[in-house]
Amino acid sequence: MSDLLETIDTSTATLLKQYIDRLTRLEQEKKDLSQDINEIYAEAKSNGFDTKTIKKILSILKKDQHQIAEEEALLETYKIALGLI
User: Fold this and answer.
1) CB of 26 within 8 A of CB of 36?
2) Where are the domains of the chain?
3) Other CB atoms closer than 10 Å to residue 20's CB: what's the count?
4) How far apart, in whole angstroms, are the C-alpha atoms of residue 10 and residue 12?
């Protein structure tokens, strides 16, 4: 371990500190955003919206149309196979 410390010069230590500082800031921003997102879900729920469905819609919006069509077709096939429809 002391060999490692001996090989870290001032510029390397400065660079490492910059990475740590940036990551610390971003982690805090992520925490703040997560709190904001949870507040929006709570607001939507208090207005009568189902948050699980909202999350599903967000998941769908992240996918391309081809992927959505494939998943829906497979789901339909499974439902038919199980006698659900």
Assistant:
1) no
2) 1-49, 51-85
3) 10
4) 5
